[in-house]
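Q: What would this chain look like folded?
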Amino acid sequence: MSRIIDAGLEELSATLHKMGKLAYRIVSMSLTECLEGEDLHEEVREMSDMLVAMADDVEDKAFELIARFQPVASDLRTIKSYMKIAYDFARFGRYALDISYTNKRLEGVKSCEKWVNLHIHEMGERTLEMIRLSADALRSHDPKLAEKISEKENEVDNLYFDFLNKLMEEKDAAIRCVVSSVLIVRYLERIADHATYICESIIYIATGRKVVLR
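A: My prediction, written as structure tokens:
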């Protein structure tokens, strides 16, 4: 038998699923922009603002559920975690906007050496995989699936530090390329962190255990 609070929880869940799809799309667009030189800045900015507005909406509805039903145990755990996940999705949008701004202001990395583009392409693909995994784990509330992000997070971290090490060995790299590429890999690394936070929240929702997957 469904409870009155269940409708509110399902509404929050539906909004988060939409945010997950939008987050994947905006990060993918920002990578296309910096690697292929397309001008997608206005679209990225609008989508980023949309994610922030949706996160605010989740927060408002979450507080309304708390005020109306005074939830405890698993319901309260779910509501608190949904608020954190909404914030993480909004951060995806902001970092995608930062990548897009780097492309607009510093011309991205399209004029950098080939290895720079290849490295960022690989790191971007791994980061998008993490966003997809976190969204899938959220949809199913599957803690086993959520735990799988730990390995991927380590891979992205290794790519991040490998890139910095290799860049420091380059004596002739143009300063514009250095600044753009370092900013972009840093933003990707932070997106990967937030995907990991989402998976930690999913495990907390499903099991009540607070884990660190980084």
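Residues 113 and 173 are 8 Å apart (CA to CA).
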